[in-house]
């Protein structure tokens, strides 16, 4: 029955399995390159997995597969900048959770989360079927959770999915207990001590190797992993919601000359001008305005609009707070963007916050995030405005190959349209 169901569904969905190099012309739609102005009646020409032409007057080769996008919207594939896709399958089942390393005293900087990436996760398919073509996969827990990667949602092995790694070191100053400390001040102090120890280790490696250096708060592997952070080559993505914590992160960044990103940022709007002046981006959602803790009392849905208008670089993620938008509801990130628009963010800024901005923040903008010649062909064709509930995804291309395929939800929906065929009655 399973095989019959898959065959029926595959008649509706197009897959990339076995597809070779091809030329595809998406014609007649309103094209949003993101890197430039929208193009009415535009064409996106794809060849061998790359975008080779974008414009209103593109010559379409005779051998090209034509996709009529008349009356539709064409955008880059969406990028969700904070997920645990491929690291967690069932939140309540420890054997399927590979996102939280134990580390040493709350520090797991050497943890390369992508080494445990599960390419067979059932959550990849629903995300890409809704226009998400790349994600940042990040670990969690502790003071320093480990290293994040950018992953393309191709149907391939884990090694083939990884776009770039590492792209950030993940830290948090939201939860003192989660970082094995008792108070917020202690948490910030512990992070400061770690950064000082990394700089000391970097300058005294020879002494450390012969056990002639003072004791340090982290293992050698973790100290080594933190060197790109203190050198400003690798961003430190800091999970912080309370405005005072955000200000503390800004001071720490200035003190150690760090490149930081604020993640979560429930109260970031209160520090909008400071964040803009320091050129510190914020990764946040727009769905909630109900505080779920004392550190989010000033949370509001206008947060992203205020930040964007103040000149802060913003990337949109889910902010539901209970993990579902890091996994099976990654597909709903477009509705976070729609909510941001409803609460003051411009439509163009919101689209950028789901495409080019996260690509820039994590060093992959030369490949994805916009529709430009030479970029990888991660392209989505929508029936209408991507942020509207009634809009459908009609085509998704990753590396130039169409990738929509039946998800578990599709299979279950189809199954329970016909089952059970009848009920037995008993006297």
Number of separate structural domains: 2
- Distance linking N and C termini: 31 Å
Series of H and E elements: HEEEEEEHEEHEHHHEHEHEHEHHHEEEH
CATH superfamily of the largest domain: Metal-dependent hydrolases
How would you concisely characterize the structure shown here?
The chain is 27% helix and 22% strand.
Q: How is the secondary structure organized here?
A:
Elements: H1 2-10, E1 23-31, E2 39-47, E3 50-55, E4 65-68, E5 73-76, E6 78-83, H2 124-129, E7 132-137, E8 144-152, H3 158-161, E9 162-172, H4 184-203, H5 205-209, H6 220-230, E10 236-240, H7 243-256, E11 260-264, H8 272-277, E12 282-284, H9 303-309, E13 314-316, H10 333-342, H11 347-353, H12 356-361, E14 379-382, E15 393-398, E16 401-402, H13 408-418
Parallel strand pairs: 1-4, 1-5, 6-7, 9-10, 10-11, 11-12, 12-13
Antiparallel strand pairs: 1-2, 2-3, 5-14, 7-8, 8-9, 14-15, 15-16
Helix pairs in contact: 4-6, 10-11
């Amino acid at each position: 029955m399973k095989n019959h169901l898959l065959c029926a569904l595959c008649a509706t969905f197009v897959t990339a399995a076995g597809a070779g190099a091809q030329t595809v012309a998406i014609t007649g739609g309103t094209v949003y390159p993101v890197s430039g102005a929208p193009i009415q009646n535009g064409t996106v020409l794809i060849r061998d997995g790359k975008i080779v032409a974008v414009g209103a007057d593109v010559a379409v080769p005779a051998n090209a597969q034509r996709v009529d996008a008349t009356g539709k919207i064409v955008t880059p594939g969406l990028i969700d900048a904070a997920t645990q896709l491929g690291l967690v399958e069932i939140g309540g089942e420890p054997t399927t959770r590979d996102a939280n390393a134990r580390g040493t005293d709350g520090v797991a900087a050497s943890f390369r989360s992508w080494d445990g990436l599960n390419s067979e996760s059932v959550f990849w398919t629903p995300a890409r079927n809704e226009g998400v073509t790349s994600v940042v996969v990040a670990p969690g827990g502790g003071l320093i959770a480990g290293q994040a990667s950018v992953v393309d949602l191709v149907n391939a092995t884990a090694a083939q999915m990884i776009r770039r790694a590492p792209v950030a070191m993940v830290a948090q100053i939201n939860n003192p207990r989660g970082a094995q400390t008792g108070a917020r001040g202690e948490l910030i102090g512990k992070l400061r001590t770690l950064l000082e120890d990394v700089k000391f280790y970097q300058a005294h490696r020879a002494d450390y190797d012969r056990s002639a250096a003072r004791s340090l708060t982290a293992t050698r592997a973790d100290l080594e992993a933190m060197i790109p952070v203190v050198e400003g080559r690798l961003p430190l993505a800091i999970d912080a919601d309370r405005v005072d914590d955000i200000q503390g992160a800004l001071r720490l960044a200035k003190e150690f000359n760090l490149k930081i990103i604020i993640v979560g940022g429930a109260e970031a709007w209160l520090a909008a001008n400071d964040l803009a002046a320091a050129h510190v981006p914020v990764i946040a959602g727009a769905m909630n305005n109900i505080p779920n803790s004392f550190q989010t009392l000033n949370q509001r849905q206008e947060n992203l609009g205020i930040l964007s208008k103040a000149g802060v670089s913003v990337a949109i993620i889910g902010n539901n707070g209970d993990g579902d938008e890091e996994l099976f509801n990654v597909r709903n990130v477009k509705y976070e963007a729609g909510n941001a628009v409803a609460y003051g963010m411009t439509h163009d800024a919101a689209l950028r916050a789901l495409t080019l901005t996260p690509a820039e923040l994590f060093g992959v903008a030369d490949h994805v995030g916009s529709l430009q010649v030479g970029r990888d062909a991660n392209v989505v064709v929508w029936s209408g405005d991507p942020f509207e509930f009634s809009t459908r995804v009609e085509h998704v291309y990753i590396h130039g190959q169409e990738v929509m395929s039946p998800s578990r939800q599709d299979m279950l929906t189809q199954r329970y349209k016909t089952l059970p065929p009848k009920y037995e009655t008993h006297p």
